[in-house]
Amino acid sequence: MSLNSKLRDLILNTRVPLILDQFPLEWDCFEGSLHDWCERFDREATEPPEFELMALSDSTTPQWERKRTKASHLGMQQFLREYGVLEEDQTHWAAYQYKRAHEMPASCLKGIDFSCFGFPEHGNDFSLWLGSEQANTPCHYDTFGVNIVVQVHGFKSWLLFPPETPLQSTRIPYEESSVYCLENFYAPDPEKMQRYEELGRDAYHCTLQAGDVLIVPRHWWHYVEAMSTSLSVNYWVPLKADMDLALDEFLVKHIVESCVKGESQMIKQYLLNPNQLDDISAKPSQLFAQFKQAVQNMESGQSNRKLWETDYISQADWQSLLNSINLTVRPLEVMPQEEYKLLLNSNARRFQIPGASPPESTPICSTWELLVSSMCAPRVIAGMKREFFRRLRQSETS
């Protein structure tokens, strides 16, 4: 059995996050320094990169994308000069995140290939993440795929929780394929520390350094923060189970879009993640047509790309496989309570720091927000789907 095949089986069958320490990658585009990569980007990009800027002082709620400003005046090399080291007088962090391969100069992607992990059919369907210190992604889980994260430059902190952890899920802001939670791990409210500490029973943590690879199992919650200027690449391995979840996402999309149709731009910007603002269906019939196609795909098992099974070997066989690999592969373990509390207390010092931004204004009432989150809750959506298929089967036999 080849190393690539062993890694593939480990990745698809792991039940906890995995770290591959100093994985021997040979991706041409990342040879040399981060400055070399940024210089090549500036030289070959057809237009300047658009960075997100986020005020460090805006800390009373998670640092949602809707609260960030856009900056297209920064080139990559200027980003390194202005944000490469977080100075005491710095007011913002900056990031160029979740950029798909087709948005990047070809030379900045040369050699990237996930076949070394057993997935040659990736089709350049990966993303790049560049950010300064404190650039972060609010805690969420990805509805689709198993996530392979390659740390290329710098350090990045990952705080992870199993799927069953009782975090407060929300679909506001709505982003297709991401379920956020209301917990603010960037700056926990000191008055709610007991609630945060209780979550520590299931907290996992790692700090990735350049050359490390993290495997995030399906539906694991994660809060991610750059500890220095950081560049990473990730690939979501598509799964057969995703075909069923695609129906859930269509239902959520219909509910959310129904709530914003005809509303002001301010309300749309509050309810929708920025990348969703231009993705609203022109009319409900378009969404229903997509839903119907997703039902047909699920029942036929057809897809336009390779989909992978999970959980097809026993834990005993998985452990034997892990022991047979001549690489350093570490399953993460629950974080020691004292380390978890230290992390919380350190981040809590950011909460309403002197000169903090005023609280974000909310253009909708709390009842409206609670109603949207309730209608989109995973167990509610699952119930709707069960009822749909019950009626579908009934109509087919009548």
TrEMBL record:
PANTHER family referenced in this protein's UniProt entry, alphabetically: HSPB1-ASSOCIATED PROTEIN 1, HYPOXIA-INDUCIBLE FACTOR 1 ALPHA INHIBITOR-RELATED
Function: May play a role in cellular stress response.
Source species, domain of life: Eukaryota
Keywords assigned: Cytoplasm
InterPro entries for the chain: Cupin_8, JmjC_dom
Annotated localization: Cytoplasm
Keyword flag Cytoplasm: yes
GO cellular component terms, A-Z: cytoplasm
Keyword Cytoplasm in annotation: yes
Name assigned to this protein: JmjC domain-containing protein
Domain JmjC: start-end pairs: 93-252
